[in-house]
Structure prediction request, 547 residues.
Amino acid sequence: MINNSNINGGMSSPSSSVNPRSQGLKTYFKTPEGRYKLHYEKTQPSSLLQYPHGKSVTQVTLAHLKEKQAQLTPTQSSSLSASSGVRFAAARFLGGGNGGRTLSFAGGNGTSKSLAGTSRSSSLGGFSNCNSLLTSNYDGKGTYLIFNVGDTIYISDFNSQDKDPIKAIHFSNSNPVCHAFDAEAKDGHDLLIGLNSGDVYSVSLRQQLQEVGKKLVGAQHYNKDGSVSTSRCTSIAWIPQGDGAFVVAHADGNLYVYEKGKDGAGDSSFTVIKDQTQFTVAHARSSKSNPVARWHICQGSINSIAFSSDGTFLATVGRDGYVRVFEYSKEQLICGGKSYYGALLCCAWSMDGKYILTGGEDDLVQVWSMEDRKVVAWGEGHSSWVSGVAFDSYWSSPSSDGTGESVMYRFGSVGQDTQLLLWDLSMEEIVVPLRRCPPGGSPTFNSGGQSSHWDSISPVGTLQPAPSMQDVPKLSPVVAHRIHTEPLSGLIFTQESILTACREGHVKIWTRPRSSESPPSNSEGLLSTSSKEKLLSPGKIGGSSFK
Prediction:
């Protein structure tokens, strides 16, 4: 899964540098609105790869650091000191290129100051550095890409074309497996990191960038040595408008609610779970305890979690194949349903909170409607497990109904088949047919009686079985493109690009088509007629596919 946090950062000029592992793959793909081009790649230095605790799937988080506040609290002042030593550390890790190049912070992250890099650093196995000191107004402002490989968290300057990270943080006892960033954090601790051991840390991203060394600095440690749970972390998220609260999902089916900064001196134990198959919530026995609550979601692993943008709803997907949607403040299960086969691995919300995407081991993408509390479409196009889904909130619908509401949504999915698929979800083709189908016809206009799937909205708290595929509109992708050589683990949409990541720690940044760019012609981009006939059978929804 990839995590996105308020990204509007600009992009620098295109790079001709392409990872050798990607040779043989095209550096562009075509869509109805134009060509997406490979801008540059990010990866970890091969000389630093360490797998003492085995491999783990790479997850990616984008973090947008705002300008540092003019005044800091005494605690912040001590931890974020602007001493010459700290500035020197930042200069070392934010150095550019191969050492002889001028580092300009105008096009990348930081302040608008230029530094001349003159030598190489050996502290991180060949990372670039600068011997000059940053000026005292350096605050790390900018956009950063955070990803995990093996026992290390890597931090890269998103707006720089350098492949190598500017910072590496090693963990001696376990692998980091998930992370999340809060751009609105008030006390400096804005980055969460969950480990395979179950341990959780909150840290200041800015402080990590300003310090020399490969260890976490100024970290708050939660679930230390498995004091609450020894089950591995699987997903982690800040609660929107939660005033520093966050949730951590584990492989044992439990989700814990924490309050940032609380030391957890009280009793951290919870009541015994009597029925592993039932959703239950238990609260801490002491007001001083941290975590403050335990949600038992399911039997088996919770694989991914996602909050709606306003924090009202929480979606989870698990090993048992169910997506569950909760009204978070009421601690209430609202709705949910089963995959067609196997586990669900990923989920994502539309920005307006109306739809949820899920993907998993049945190789399909499902679209859930919060209004109808059921599946309203499913997409077929992957040839292996779907490992990441996301809505493209920056994509402009080609049509409008005049009300300001979206009439078409663009979303993407990536899978272990190394493919990126883009899909268009049209309200005209899906919602209207469902509500205006002819007498005796089904929502997909097949012959036969009306399916009970559409008879009524399911009662609150109902987990539904998977509906018949014949009763739910089928989507076909508008784009299907093999973009990596290794199985993919996630994607992020930004205002100017699409980010795709493979499980081995390689990230590609694809720039969007320019507005002046004309769409590809039929001869250039469309699938053949015979291919389209295979994808678009009668009653199935989908547009032309591009390669």
Summary: The longest helix spans residues 84-93.
